[in-house]
Amino acid sequence: MAALTGLALHRASAAARHVLWTLAIAGCLLMPLLMIVLPDWRLAAVPDLRPALLGLADPRQDSVRFPDDADGTRSEVDVAAPFPAEIPPAEDAGAATTSPETVSEAGAGAAGTTSPVAVPWYVWAWGAGALAVLAFFAAAARQLHAIVGRSMSLDDPDWREDAAFAARSAGLPPDALRLRRSIDSITPMTWGVRRPVIVLPRDCQEWSAGQRREVLLHEAGHVGRRDCLTQWLANLACIVYWCQPLVWWAARRMLTERERACDDRVLRAGATPSAYAQHLLDIARNLGAGRRSVLAGVAMARRSQVSGRLLAILDPGCNRGGPRRSHVLAAAAATLVALSTLAALTPGRLVHAAPMGALAGGRPPDGSDTANEPSRPAVRWSLQGIRGAIDRGNLAIETAVGARDGEAASRVYSNDAVLFGMGGEERHGRRQVAELYASLFAQGYRELAIEVEETLRLDDGLVHELGRFTYFHENGRTHLRGRYMSIWRLEDGEWLVYRDISNI
Amino acid sequence: MRHPTHLALAAILVLSMAGPAPARDAEAARGIDAAHDRMRQALHDGDVLALAENYTADCRLYSPLKPVCDSRAELVKQMQYAIDIGLYDFELVREELLGRGDHVVELGLVTFFDQAGAKLSQIRYMTVWKKVDGRWRIWRDMAA
User: pLDDT class for A295, splitting at 50, 70, 90?
Assistant: First the structure.
């Protein structure tokens, strides 16, 4: 969106475009916070773009959707789709197989040991990349800090006088600019957010008065515009979104427009374009030590940008105006609204939901029964992840039946599970579920085969399952076959059977 | 900035994607209640087609000791049979309505009556309702 708006603003001033890119960078950083803070807006037929916006390849994102109706509408119905072995469920990190041993262990009482909070591989990958980028920026900052540490205060009266003039032109107090002369051959740069320092190259005192004034006007522009702060925001965005090339591109665009905006300030103050271009070229030519350090600070000249800046400086038709404060505020407000909207949008049925109310003996009241809603799941499970959890749960039940262990089977059910069987038979809670299985064992049923036909996500914490079951009798002839529908509920990161109905 | 309207326009474009605010839970409950009322009226009228209108085209019904009903023709046939044996009315006790969105699951107890008000049977049910074309219809149904 920022890129499109940037195209629309191609005739606007560099300062205006810098505002745009700064807002884009700030928006990237704000987005995750807004997604956490803002409530969901349900929106049908819009895919979940947020992982893509964040630049994260999220294995949990829903990728299996099937048309389930003649009208072409799509729903999150997983129709008898086997759990794809090549896509390990995110919640199963460290136990990517559903080997009999694994399930047997779950059936013996460790059904909840496959924790969904286990850190998946992509989080590690992101963390490693972010740390690498952080280390790079930290090294740059350290190098710049060393350059500043080796520098000396510059208190020459001519410099002080021009610094006061430049400060006033940038809307700063006359003594706001702290000047230091480096012992290194560097490009002039500004460093620091709270108390910015302008660091000048060692040969700066050989500059002409015009060049001195232009450099100070340029750097004062950075101080007045608080470019060091926006530079840190850009660096932070690059660390967080290191795998998102658009963020790097936006940061680079922001940097380019920032320098051009300060060039425009110099020219607005009366500098001759050709002379200023020559001075900029001289500075770029002498750029020596500490090239990496310019990434941490706000450097006046980077060789990669010089040609474009020279063309802009020499372009008589270039818009060099600064944005009005009211326009900046309007743009910031519009961005915030757009970001909030994007952050709050929730596609289709991927919204938080909860039981609408459990009212024995009556209909739910109109709209306000939320007392029984469980807390919102901390993570959104993919269909594959849910299906994998349900498959493991069913396998645990099958294994428990094979082991004639009703207690183990009952652990796949929630504490407040209710089972409805033929003839109005009801079982409440794990103890009665275990008793039900024990009664089946007593009747001679030894093996159970469960075949899942459909799973349907009702909300983030509830899934409907439809399937067939077959109990095999020990006599080898009498089998009990039937259908079941179950509601699985996510409880403390574990999918458990919450409601079940079956018939034959 | 010369053209702040561009940013405002972009924001409006994004906002225009937002659509209506989330439906309240009660909307599903009301819609399902309305479907129940329509089904009850269709039973009173002996209108099998009107009854079948309350099911999705791809519905599947799992009744005890009966084959799966998974076609419109089979659905109409089963309903006609139910009317023929005297089914005239039913009374629902909804115990739970689970989920949000276009699918919700209703659990409860239903009692069937003949025209004289005599109780025919009482069964537990779990019904998956699906909102199609603005109306809630039965998508999956199982009785026990």
Answer: low
- CA–CA separation, A466 and A483 (whole Å): 8
Q: Which domains does chain B have, with CATH numbers?
A: 24-143 (3.10.450.50)
User: Chain B: nearest CA to A491, how far in angstroms?
Assistant: 15
Looking at the domain assignment, is residue A227 inside a domain? yes
| Shortest alpha-carbon distance between residue A220 and chain B (Å) | 21
pLDDT at A328: 87
Torsion angle of C-alpha atoms A26, A27, A28, A34, degrees rounded to 10: 120
- Those residues whose C-beta lies under 8 Å from the C-beta of residue B116, and which sit 6 or more positions away, are none
Q: What is the CATH number of the domain that holds A109?
A: 3.10.450.50
Q: With respect to residue A213, please indicate whether it lies within any of the assigned structural domains.
A: yes
Whether the predicted pLDDT of A476 surpasses 50: yes
Do the domain assignments include residue A497?
yes
Mean pLDDT of the region A13-42: 82
Task: Tell me which of B2, B3, B7 to substitute to probe the interface with A (most A C-beta atoms closer than 10 Å).
Answer: B7
**A169 and A258 share one domain:** yes
pTM for this predicted structure:
0.46
Label residue A411 exposed, middle or buried (CB < 10 Å: 0-12, 13-18, 19+): buried
Interchain proximity A483–B122, CB inside 8 Å: no
Q: How confident is the model at residue A403 (pLDDT cuts 50, 70, 90)?
A: very high
Q: Which residues in chain B have their CB less than 8 angstroms from residue A366's CB?
A: 26, 29-30
Q: Is this complex scored with an ipTM above 0.85?
A: no
Is residue A42 in some structural domain? no
Has residue A56 got a pLDDT over 70?
no
Same domain membership, residue A165 and residue A105: no
